[in-house]
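Thread title: Can someone regenerate the structure for this chain?

I was given the following input by a collaborator and told the matching structure tokens would be attached. They weren't. Posting the sequence so someone can regenerate them.
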Amino acid sequence: MMQSILPEQLASPLPAALHELPPPDEAARAHMQRLHALVVAEMQAEGFMSFARFMELALYAPGLGYYAAGTAKFGAGGDYVTAPELSPLFGAAVAQQVAQCVTSETDTVIELGAGTGRMAADILRELERLERLPRSYQIIELSPELRARQHATLRGCAPALCDRVQWLERLPERIRGVVIGNEVLDALPVALVGTSGGRIAELGVTFDAATQRFSWARRDATGELLAAARELSLPDEYTTEVHLAARGLVRTIGAVLEHGIALFIDYGFPRHEYYHPQRSSGTLMCHYRHHSHGDPLCLVGLQDITSHLDFTALADAAADVGLSTLGYATQAHFLMGCGILDRLCAYDPQDAATYARVCAGVQPLLSPAEMGELFKVIAFGRGIDGPLLGFRSGNRVGRL
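Best answer:
Regenerated them for you:
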């Protein structure tokens, strides 16, 4: 049984090793302490909480989790910058792929977790230019704060197209169209496993009454997690993530996707690279005010927690529900296949200031040293014939 803790008794949110991070202000500390208290209360019965559940609460606890609370997350004033914020040409390129799949029978686009709404606005404007607007553009968004921000972005950037946008809290019962997820799967809760002496343990979180901090704990892995970890043939003394929630979302989408594609853009590797013996500490990473670090047990509710993706596991999950993997490529190859360089060339280089600004936005999207190689694009589909535009070259499906 764990010691009961009042919020004001919680210790400093930053371990000594992370004191180089910007300290939270008093309001942020109070918010974090409320979430601490909720987590501690839930783990009182067992004294152990799976890391997947801890991550779920840290990110999505109603009104308190990182994505459920009203704090800035994207852009210069937030914790990180996403591709749509870097350049409108990102959304315009994605729209080219969407346009290929939008027909009179597949006339719905669904975006999962639309962030600031910038990509939705850019996609809609490009589809209007191409005369391929869908009947409906639906956004699945649980955060009231992000919904409001998306409303504002669309009203400002694409006011004539706002009437096509709907906000939903869950997937429709049937989908005929295109599903898009940009940096969505990496923020789903992951399970952590560790191997030692031939045994597989599940890593979780407990509360250390002596230090007044969350700390790591272990118990034997069981059930679906144990079965999934055994399939990986992990080396001994190895810690890594297993993406049960991401697999589950792909299966859920596949169960309702009657005709169309599901397109995911995120960072990660195929299985043989992800679980390489040298990657012995996993890929878990936290983002706080444009600083990255590896301790998810501090700044709970104030920082993003992410994991790279095992794209092989996603392809396997898609196959489980009858979807085909239609393409898998680096972000750079996908965006170039969708004509991002053609759109760049449409800008007049004689207008040096504008041209330099546009190039500066596109460069990190394509650079192998930045997002171009680490980020991948994978497409699953049902009832789709012929190669997809973004995978005409550089398709790495055979490497999954």
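The CA atoms of residues 50 and 213 lie 16 Å apart.
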